[in-house]
Amino acid sequence: MQKSILFTRPSHDQATACLHYFSGKLIEEIKGVGEYSIINLERHKATREIFEKSMTKSKPRLVVLNGHGFKQGVCGQDKKIILDKDNINLLDSKIIYAVACDSSEELGEIATAKGNADAYVGYEAHFMVVTDPSRSSTPSKDKNIKIFIKPYATMVLSLISGLSVEKAINHTKDTLRGLIREYGVYGISDKYGDAPLIRFALYWDLTFLKGYGDLSSIV
Amino acid sequence: MRKNNNTGRIREGIKEIVIERLLTLNKDSKILLMGFNKPLSVKDMLDEVKRDTPFGKKIVEVQFKYIQMLANGEI
Lengths: 219, 75
Prior knowledge:
The complex is a heterodimer of chains A (219) and B (75).
Chain A: E1 3-9, H1 14-33, E2 36-42, H2 48-58, E3 62-66, E4 69-70, E5 73-75, E6 81-83, E7 95-99, H3 103-113, E8 119-123, E9 128-131, H4 143-146, H5 149-160, H6 165-185, H7 195-208, E10 209-213
Parallel strand pairs in A: 1-2, 1-3, 3-7, 7-8
Antiparallel strand pairs in A: 4-5, 5-6, 8-10
Helix pairs in contact in A: 1-5, 5-6, 6-7
Chain B: H1 2-23, E1 30-33, E2 40-41, H2 42-50, H3 54-71
Antiparallel strand pairs in B: 1-2
């Protein structure tokens, strides 16, 4: 039976539009591989009701949550809560990658302890991305945010390539370190003087990326 | 008591270093943060640091670690 990956992909402001763009690119890449079926809950489909139905029906092994969040939950379209402690049991036996602010600080523990998720990967603080001031309303044309696709995608691609959660986290951290080095040493074109801030944001994401649960789990 | 005063002074010193560092960045550069409705400029980040908000304190903590890491040649 083909394994499935569920993505929530709200897009209602600049931050969620950015993650919507990242996840769209990643989905294209995964579809190219062809080994996984994708459940794509984008925009108006990123609701609590559809999320709950999809999780129950499709039983995805990997769940990628994009959007705003808070210490005990993750939001979908229009900042409406789709996951919190009341439906945390949906995460039973699953691996979760949540790119939502603050969500891992408490939800990571809740997801694994109460929800019986195999593993939960998230950010203990707001996930940070630097925008190109001249292109900030169009993610596909924004050269700065494109830098952040790489670590975002590395996490998921590492997981689906068979690495354990721990190795996928380490691989992603290595990618972030590599990008920091790249932006510090090589002659990167830096028209707007954003490179120092990009390095800081990459370091920020490196600092707060954290895994919970059984980190030897594999997808 | 003296230890507390020293710790407070060190913290303020670190904050000043981070503020100086942020002042070297393009003040119009912007970041997107999951959880904030709109992008924040470097100027907004400076305000958060100066006002000692929880986010501002995190900026200080991470910037300082980042500066230390650069100084130690870890990356």
